[in-house]
Amino acid sequence: MDGVRYLLALFLVLLAPGVFLYWFSIHPFIRFWRSVGPRLTIVIHYGFILILAAGVFLIRKPLLSIEFGANPVLIVLAVPLYVLVIVLRVQLSKQVGTKVIHGLPELAPEKYGSRLVTGGIYSRIRHPRYVQLLLAFLSFAMVANYLAGYVVVLAAVVWVFLVTRVEEKELRERFGAEHEAYCARVPRFVPKL
Question: Which among 70, 72, 115, 74 is positioned nearest to 96, based on CA atoms?
Answer without folding.
Answer: 115
